[in-house]
Design goal:
By secondary structure, this protein is α/β, with parallel strands linked by helices. The protein has a single domain, classed as Rossmann fold (3-Layer(aba) Sandwich), CATH 3.40.50.150. Helix content is 29%, strand content 16%. The N terminus is likely disordered.
Length: 190
Amino acid sequence: MANISVLESPAILGDTTKKRNREKCRVPEISVSNPVLENVRAEAGEDFYQYLHWLKLAREPNLLTLSSSHHFYYDSSDLKRVKTLINLKKLNNIKHLESFLSVVNRLLPRTAYFVGCFKNNEQNGDRLPYYSSAKFLNKLINIIDSRTDRSLTVMDVTNRLAEHNLTVIDITEINGITYFCSQNTGNSFR
């Protein structure tokens, strides 16, 4: 992991600015005693773990993770006191993304945070001539293969979250993966 530092720290509450490609700060090595954070570190890696610390959400109570490899079923009573829902599966790999985001909005309490990641497929101005055909070929293979590897950009994710009343608070790219933090501002059942 590269040595990256930040001069400023985000204020989660009340900060609605979107900051792209912000460098993250190193969090001093602390003992992980929260099983949710242990799961994040083991399954999603050090960068996701550091991102949660940088957002100052790691010490918050009532965290819940949605594993990318294990399937758990939660009902509305399980999510009543959740303050932060952490999705460890990249949004690119969620087969029914619109339905998933709709359920997240509906079940999360108002003002709860939804944190996740995705692979940003934006090109930095230097498009390769074969990029379009390679992208088309990947989509075709995914359809045939029944695999999901959706092409997403920062704007796609921001718009999809907004459509489901999840307001983006932060978007940060770390080592090729884009992490986001959003807050539920919609009409949940609570």
